[in-house]
Design goal:
The complex is a heterodimer of chains A (about 260) and B (about 260).
Chain A (H helix, E strand, L loop, with lengths): L1 H27 L10 H13 L2 H33 L1 H14 L8 H8 L3 H25 L3 H10 L3 H38 L4 H11 L3 H30 L11
Helix pairs in contact in A: 2-10, 3-4, 3-6, 3-8, 3-9, 5-6, 6-8, 7-8, 8-9, 8-10, 9-10
Chain B lengths: L7 E10 L2 E11 L4 E5 L6 H9 L6 E6 L2 E2 L7 E4 L3 H4 L6 H11 L7 H11 L15 H14 L4 E5 L7 H18 L2 E6 L2 H7 L2 E6 L4 E7 L10 H4 L1 H17 L2
Parallel strand pairs in B: 3-8, 3-9, 6-7, 7-8
Antiparallel strand pairs in B: 1-2, 1-4, 4-5, 9-10
Classes of the chains: A mainly alpha (about 260), B alpha/beta (about 260).
Chain lengths: ~260, ~260
């Protein structure tokens, strides 16, 4: 506990020192900048963004778009991954298409998505879904391949049909690896949704960043930047904790009262 | 020819992977209720033989029959207990839910399951551990759990693949006695693979030894030791000692 606190306390030293140095630098060189702002002003900018009502709304817009897109990408990617992972024919039929389509950067689809869906949530769902589809597709396939053959034999010996085999044996066995895909995709969905908002979609935190930039308010821009960072960090922290909760009991050799 | 079909019958069974001959010309049968132990050095194909009987592998030539019917795929009437309990149990299911697995597979109504599961767990001495995950149980307890799960299938035949090979000597003896008691209660046919001559003699009504490269039957002897068997008196029985010596000599000759 004490050791952990000491370590985490030391971890804060560097960022705090950088902030203090930045503040000192701005005090010694009183300039008006369109690109930079001292930490104190960023803090004030944050308070301003939080109190003028746009803050909650834009955060909600970004998170909602990211989550909905992720849900679509996850569902489609996992289902396709299962089909390709289980059927050799599907694997052969799709291998070229996957290799051709996967390298297309998700942000390259922004124009197409904008043409198809116009401004609003739907174009953002589409791009986020595309971006998150691939990690789920690839990692589900790999996860299925890595299931211990012994478990597959056990399910055959019990006489399970294909659906029970998938839901009672394969998916639970693959769950830790699928969760890794989820963690990866959650981070990705946030990155992509903010990118879409910066590039095209007039809503959410990304658009807020653009507005701050265009109205020459570096303090607000940095405040939003820090906030996006905190969101990403918090989501990952939560997922790591959840991962520990969900899968800790699988490790062999636990104490009897664990 | 017996009036009742054998529980397991192998007719001139051979198996090869490519040019690699694993088993050749295996002819043997196991009668209902019989406890047959198969011994052989590693690489003699004894596990492969068990997997063919289970329906997990198809012979290259010859026939495998269960109760007179050819084996094409695994059936619920034949249960398998693997040596590597750590891989065969579902690590995300508690002891209770692991035993529940075959009941779910056979479509037993959910309301009938708890009683049956608790009976089985009590039978293998895990009544107080139903809420533990396999990772929280000792090796011996995990193997008991796998045995309980296999019994939940209500099998006619139990195929056991070196089930006690990874356990310490004390646990192994306890489990040997428990398995004999459990299968005697239900008159289950057992096909038990081991590399331990004494274990084979102690448990079996018959011992079949495999010669290797390619795997084939070297000899097949009856073990006329009285039942119930006992770790002390059976192992000191003159017939046990005589058979043990005989088998050691044969095995040495085979592997010379």
């Amino acid at each position: 506990m004490t050791a952990g606190f000491t370590r985490s306390w030391r971890g804060w030293l560097l960022p705090l020192a950088v902030l203090a140095a930045a503040e000192a630098w701005f005090l010694l060189n009183p300039i008006m900048s369109d690109t930079l702002a001292p930490p104190s002003k960023i803090l004030l900018g944050a308070v301003e963004t939080m109190t003028d009502g746009t803050f909650l709304r834009t955060t909600y817009q970004t998170l909602f778009a990211a989550a909905a897109g992720l849900l679509i990408g996850m569902t489609a990617g996992t289902i396709c991954g299962i089909v390709i992972g289980l059927l050799r024919t599907a694997d052969r039929l799709s291998s070229w298409s996957v290799e051709m389509l996967r390298p297309i950067p998700s942000v390259a689809l922004i124009p197409l998505s904008l043409l198809t869906f116009g401004y609003g949530y739907r174009m953002e769902y589409a791009v986020v879904a595309w971006a998150t589809f691939w990690p789920f597709l690839i990692l589900t396939q790999h996860a299925l391949k890595q299931i211990d053959v012994r478990l597959i034999e056990v399910s055959r010996l019990m006489g399970f049909g294909i659906l029970s085999r998938i839901f009672k044996i394969m998916l639970p066995a693959a769950a830790p690896r699928l969760f890794t895909a989820l963690r990866l995709a959650v981070g990705l969905s946030l990155v992509v949704s903010v990118t879409v908002e910066i590039a095209a979609n007039p809503q959410g935190l990304g658009y807020g960043l653009m507005v701050a930039q265009e109205s020459l308010r570096p303090d607000r821009m940095f405040a939003l930047l820090v906030w996006v960072g905190i969101l990403g960090w918090a989501l990952n922290y939560f997922l790591v904790r959840l991962e520990g909760r969900l899968f800790a009991h699988r490790a062999p050799g636990l104490s009897a009262d664990a | 020819m017996a009036a009742v079909a054998s529980a397991i019958e192998l007719k001139n069974v051979s198996l090869s992977f490519g040019s690699n001959q694993i088993l050749t010309g295996i002819d043997m049968s196991v009668e209902p209720g019989e406890f047959v132990c198969v011994i052989g050095a590693s690489g003699s194909g004894k596990t492969t033989l068990l997997r063919m009987i289970a329906g997990l592998l198809t012979p290259t030539s010859g026939q495998v029959l269960q109760h007179g019917r050819p084996v094409r795929a695994p059936t619920r009437k034949v249960a398998v207990v693997f040596q590597d309990y750590g891989r065969a149990l579902l690590p995300w299911r508690r002891a209770y839910a692991n035993v529940s697995l075959p009941l779910e597979a056979s479509g037993m109504p959910a309301r009938d399951r708890p009683k049956r599961i608790r009976e089985l767990l009590a039978k293998v001495g895990l009544a107080n551990h139903e809420n533990k995950f396999p990772g929280q149980l000792s090796g011996g307890m995990q193997q008991r759990l796998q045995i309980a799960r296999s019994l939940a299938q209500e099998p006619d035949t139990l195929l056991m693949d070196e089930p006690f090979g990874a356990l310490d000597a004390m646990t192994r003896q306890t489990l040997q006695d428990e398995v004999m008691r459990l299968v005697a209660e239900r008159r289950t046919t057992v096909f038990f693979v081991t590399h331990d001559i004494e274990e084979a003699l102690y448990l079996g009504d018959r011992v079949v030894a495999l010669d290797s490269n390619p795997g084939r039957i070297a000899y097949d002897i009856k073990v006329p030791l009285p039942r119930p068997r006992d770790q002390l008196t059976t192992r000191e029985h003159p017939e046990f000692l005589r058979l043990r010596r005989e088998m050691f000599e044969i095995m040495n000759k085979i592997h010379a």
